[in-house]
Amino acid sequence: MTRMGKLGIPSNASTSQASTIMSNTEAADAAAAPRRSQRDKRQVERFGSDNTKKRKRGEESDSDTPEPASESDDQDVEEEEEEEEEPRKAKPKRKTSSTPKTRLKPKAPPQKKPRIQKTAPAKIGPKATKRTRRPKAGDIAQPFDAEKLAKDTHISGDNPLFNAIVDSSANLQTTIEDFLESLTQSPEHALAELINSILRCCGCSNAVNSDQVTDYDGIVDVLEDMTEALKNDDSSVVYPMSSKLPMLKKFRKSLAEFFERLIFSSAESDQLYNTELMRCIQYWVTPMSSSQIRGFRHASTIIALEIQTALADVAASVEKEAEVVARQRKGERKRKGGAAGGSKELDAKANAIREKRTKVAEYLKDFVDGVFMLRYRDTDWAIRMECVHALGNWFQKHPSHFLDSTYLRYIGWVFSDENMHVRLEAVRALEDAYEQEDHISSLQSFTSRFKARIIQMATSDVDVSVRVSVIQVLRSIDRHGLLEDDQREKLCLLIYDEDPRIRKGVSGFVKGVWEDDVSERIAGKKLSDWEKRQAEVKSLASLLVKWGKALDKLTIREDSSEDEESSSKRMGGVASVMDPETKGRTALAVEALWDVIDPINDWEGLLDLLLLDHSAGVEEEEEQGPSTSSSPNGRTVVDAAWRLSEVEEAIALEIFTGSIRKAVGEAAAAKKGEDQVVSDVTRVLIKGLPRLFLKHQGDENRIADVLLLPSFMNLETYLDMRMITAYEHLWSDVTKQLLTHSSQTVLVPSVAAIQKFLSVTSLSNTNNAKILELEEELSTLLRDAIAGREELDIAAFTEDESLALGHICTRFAVLAKVRNLVPCLEEDEGGKQSSAYDIFTALADRGKLGYREEEAMVSETLNLLTMHIIWKTKSLPSQGTRSSDDKKAAQTLLEQRTALVQKLIDFAVGNQSNTTEAVKRVAFLNLMDLHILFSQKPEEGEEDDSPSLSLHLDEEVQFRCSEFVQKEISRFKDQLQESCPRAKGETDGSGAEESDEHAKKSKKAKPHAEEADRRKLPKTAADLQREHVFICVMLTFLRAIHGGAVHYKHCIPFLANYTRLIEPFDICSKTIADILRNEAILAEHSEEVCQVIIAALQDAYKLVLEGEESSKEPSVALAKLLATCFIIRGAQLSIVGKIDPKVVVNVHTTLLSWIGQYIATYEKSGNNKQRNVAAGFFKALLPLLPSIESRDALKIKAHMEQVLAQAKVKITPASKIWDAQRAYEKRLTTTMSKDKAFAPAKGRRRKRKDAEASSGAEEVETEPEPPAPTRPRPQPQRKSKRLEPEPEPTASSDQEGMGTDSDKLTDLEDEEEKMEREDEAGAEQGEPETPKATRKTGRSPTKGPSRTTTPSPSPSRKRPRVEGEDVEMNDIEPAPSPAPEQAQDPVVEEVVVRRKRLRA
């Protein structure tokens, strides 16, 4: 009876009722009591808005039409619902009752829950659906197994609430209703069950009882005990939300649904307000969210956030109900003669709602203050992301409360989070906030405060997805008119961004700006559809011109005096020279705006606008008149609403070209209707192209765009439509542009159009006639230009004649890239006149004169002669199948090629001092191209008596080419420094006033800042052109190395300047590293590659030693790059190939000797500053160590000690200058310790010394373990002592001993291997190891009596402790220093011991 009284059971209750209540209190399976959903329940008056879409889980709609959510139920369940529908319709107001059924165990599938009669007001929360899921075809539903869950997750499965969350087939709504009923009857036990379920969600198997759950003062102590227990449990690292088990795949979603339904159901039954439910959850979850255990912190934070989200929904429903009651009360007061009872009823209802609102507001504030404000800045980015995601949900659920600067500021602060997922979630939350049109006024303060940061994220965030999302937010902000004009323009510039996703994302924003401009342009005018479309094109063109100029100011440093026309030319000039077929920025903008701006799709309307004469306009007073009319001179007058300026007309032409390209490209990608689209384009261009050629032939930029149009046409349409004459006119228009223009901007697309014509075989007659006519005209122009002069190599030309010859050579060279001009060039009319080839050869000889006005002519002539050799070689049959005529042609070709190669060598790397730099560069490119093409030797069986065309570059010429590349790199480096002037006067005169540390920091930080600033600075057109030329030279030389024309040992200039120039150059250096790795490991040329690596590192660090570079970071980066040449890794970083370890040792020893010479020189001369710079080279040696083994580390360490001893430097432990050397030595020691044979001996070394001092060699023989190999001992103090001036003999003795370490190790390698085999044999026979106690007590490990030994004398210095070695008094206490003649090196000591063993 006492127990029943404590549980709140009435004394007059029956035995069955008491047993039912007690069983529910103990959270056991109720075998006798029916579920609450199956008994008569009190109808709870529900509250909330009518438009809510969420309902309790497990309930059905009253409508006859089935809800979509019920489609997930099984077919059998649906049939049962249909059978039960009729009796429920007969008595809709009667409460349902059914035969009591026993409650199911957690493992068993739930029974179907009968429907409950709904009340009129809408309910809170989501629509309730069953947790049963339709299995896929072939799948067998597996019942939930709590024991398997406990076994797999190490989490106890004794909690029914936790099991229901994990079980995907459980009915959560039924589980929650049973819990709330238990909460009414036995609150302490129900709350304990809930808190235990939260602990299970955190991965904790501990539990609290009914007394602990409400002891709020002891919660922290209980959680601390659980935390300490979990720290010692390795399995606690994995908790349900971090587990990858299939059964926990949907745990996160189920957990959110569970607590959401718990809050909704408790709010409907008022248990949320009149029980200890929320108070208990808050008191437990809040301290758990600050736990050191990630599982506690993560899971409890998510639970608190989900509860807060549900509370926000409840609060919003309460607010809406309060508004309804307020309107009812207001109407009641206005009504005259209203019943007083009705008013009192409304007042009581209003008071009840007010109390609910107050309590919900308290709950919201407590969770925000206790959980959110602390966890939104958690160290774990996943927890921070959950907080921001929840805040976005709160904005949607309860905007009137949360859309306030108090909460919005957290979003603004999170914009600076280092993790992109957190920033992305913040942007998405803000996007949802701006969709709340009714609360936009609450966002104005936030927008004005964080608008600059939002725009910065859109333009320069490192993550593209964040930028795209921010652009959508700014689009919402702009719809409300919260952006300034300059900010809108800055965002519109993203239409030219290099990333297509950014361009596509900003297209909607650009559309909004374009629509506003169109509205302003046509305001107050009555225009037809055609006229409106032309005005829209005019608006788009003007905006693109405006944005293009703004982009130029931001990205390109240009002269302020540059006018619009020159700016327009420069827009596409650089790109056209580099690659004319590459899409310009206007074409990229067209692709991004294709789907959002309709006039871009209407390429026919664009052509109509372009064909108008925009030079004719109307006066201001005539603007209200007709849109188009005829002027007195007969020209059509264009209305000002769509009249284009010169720059706008050029942009409109680019839009038209991009629209044609996009239309044809989409049709080709869809593979449906391609022929129709191309046919339509061709028919329109047949009529429009001649007029476009005639209109724009005077502007090279516009005519270049027009010349791109024939490539999108189906030229066979001319034959189908019998328009051969029109086709011939098209040929004439293209050749006219080729013959009248000399710029690469026009010549390259002209030749591309000619190549397109020649590819149409059905029009071959016309094509052959036209191309021969063009060749003849070019030859005539060439002969007319030389005007019968003889000895062209020394003849005098005026400046105009040189310019005209240069244009002719350029046309020939460009045409030779796509057309075989060998017959044209070698045509001499039977010897009556000089051939064009002879003329060009003579003109090429003028390169030795060095006239700057002729460098374009000579350069293009060299290109033409190279293409002549290539075309002539292509026409020859392969060796072994040549006829007599072919052999003669091959001999002639060989003679021509030999003369050309010699000419190229003289110009590029010869002694022709008068040759201009541009001619040298072109000669070098052609020289490399020829050797790349002819570097392959004929295969066996193909040789005949005809001359071989194989070409080999002499070693001397290769060295000259390498020097040429080095000069080009130096010249380009100087140009970069000129384009990025350094700030002067910052460090002048500060050496005596500043401290050493401050000076060192400033000098160290400055190179990095300069390098970063230089790469970020905007570039002029000249800078881009210069980079293009430089990279062409570097890539050509790289291709020669890769193709075998040049030996890879000449790649040192590439590697020595790694990370010092531009990014494309660094890519070339990485390719060189790949070549070296393949040569060293696959081709087994490790020795040669070793010499290249050594020379590259030496040259790279010489720049630092000689003062040309002040930063050591490029040398370290180069070492990291070259370290990849030692190992070839496969899948999962497995080692597939490895270089010979001897080569790696050779690299280290050679570099150590090299830097040791510098250190010794600077130390001898007293130049401490340069010595410190040289000491930094050890930092570059560190990346080369990972591929060495223990024995190699021993050799390298011995050599390093020898080098430093010979340099006579004093290394103090506290000196930061030698930090790199100490790190290098530590890495070597660590590598040596990985091998047991070289690991520091803990007890055997001292025992061996004691044995030698007492009984000599016999004691060594009785040792149970063979002596360990040479153990390297850190000797910084020995080095410093050796360099002291007093006493002089000691330093000499030590130095002499150190100088013989490597020789001794080399002489005894065979003996060491033999001793290691003996050691392994002894270990296999079970010989015991010397324990640590032997070293401390002098006791032998055998069972014989202990023997006292005399410790050997130790030096007076403190020997540094080696990792893994025990500290002893003899190691740290000073002792008398031995005489110089008695001091012996550890290596010599080991040698003596081993010789004694061998003699024994």
UniProtKB/TrEMBL annotation:
Ranges of compositional bias, category Low complexity: 1339-1351, 1380-1390
Taxon lineage: Eukaryota, Fungi, Dikarya, Basidiomycota, Agaricomycotina
Biased composition (Basic and acidic residues): 40-60, 976-987
Annotated region described as Disordered, given as residue ranges: 1-139, 558-577, 976-1018, 1235-1400
Biased composition (Polar residues): 11-26
Species per Swiss-Prot/TrEMBL record: Thelephora terrestris
Domain SCD: 372-457
Record Pfam families: HEAT_SCC3-SA (PF24571), SCD (PF21581), STAG (PF08514)
PROSITE patterns xref list: SCD
Identification of the protein by name: SCD domain-containing protein
